[in-house]
Amino acid sequence: MPEARRAGERGPYAGGVARREAILDATVDMVAEVGYHGLSMRDVARRVGISHPGVIYHFPSKDVLLMSVIERYEERLNFKVSSLADMAPFEVFEAFIELANSLGNSQTIVEMECMLTVEASASVHPAHDHFAARFAGLQEVLTDAFTKLESQGMLNTVAQPRQLAYQLLAQWYGLQIQWLYATDEIPVNAVLTQTVLAALDFTKEGVLETVLASSFSSPEAIAIVQRSTGLSLSDMLQRGLLKLTHDNLKRYGLAEVPPEIIDKIVHSGILTSEDLAYAQDNRAFSIEFLGRMVVNGVLTTDEYTVLSDLGIVPAEAVAALTAVMAAGAMQAQPQK
């Protein structure tokens, strides 16, 4: 009888999985170094420290290897088109845009996506079925979401659900290519959000309220709503059209801020969608917004200290500004 395996000893299967992961990791690193076309299976084998046939055993071709990298990335993102099917329309759009951003976090993955998407259009390509299923699934989910909005009377008269779905997908893939040329200049969130909101008719009763009450009310969405309706963020907050709920505050990195401080900031009338966007990106208020709060006498020195302790504003800036206030060089206006 074979000797019993000692506790903690890995079997052949575990070793095979580990080797497969090592090959995928090496592939990602090497594509980043030498590019899609510069990658060879033999180089991957050398990087991992195994034979060329050892790589072929797990991945029969370069295309299969690269497709496996993308599939693993999607698994780590927990990306499943089927998971969007039961969501409310604005939840679908939010998830779609989040997916677009997540897949765009890695330049290497985007490069492989762009190359494989084109090459896999040939029906014999090993990745053809994967991308065909992704396109078809997203088209149906997005079409269904827009169709539901249409049935609720929320779309404008020229908007067509299926065409809007095609447009969103086309923008996503087009933005990926542009992002590779200018990674710091392509506002993927804003462009995709604009497409969704441009299809809505904000003159119809309840449309604005529905959008602002949904999880889709990101800083980008709020800024677009402002331009579409002429309402400022302060107007929306004070009319109760938009509420800074705990979920919203968590999104903006402000979940730990005491409600009474948030209430003062909201009622000050100086908070803008740009301030929220900065908070979302940086998990903090900007120095410029901090200065406006001080000038307008929004908070007390103790409340600024609370924000500093939470990391919402820099401690050094709070110390300097409150010192100026205490010295009387900057007179805060009375709170409203």
From TrEMBL:
Ranges annotated as DNA-binding: 40-59
GO MF annotation list: DNA-binding transcription factor activity; transcription cis-regulatory region binding
Stretches assigned to the HTH tetR-type domain: 17-77
Xref: PANTHER family: HTH-TYPE TRANSCRIPTIONAL REGULATOR RUTR, TRANSCRIPTIONAL REGULATORY PROTEIN
Alphabetic keyword roster: DNA-binding
Keyword Lyase assigned: no
Family matches, as Pfam families: TetR_N
Coiled-coil intervals, chain numbering: none
Highest taxon in the source lineage: Bacteria
Organism expressing this protein natively: Nanchangia anserum
InterPro entries referenced in this protein's UniProt entry, alphabetically: Homeodomain-like_sf, HTH-type_TetR-like_transc_reg, HTH_TetR, Tet_transcr_reg_TetR-rel_C_sf
Descriptive protein name: TetR/AcrR family transcriptional regulator
Keyword S-adenosyl-L-methionine: no
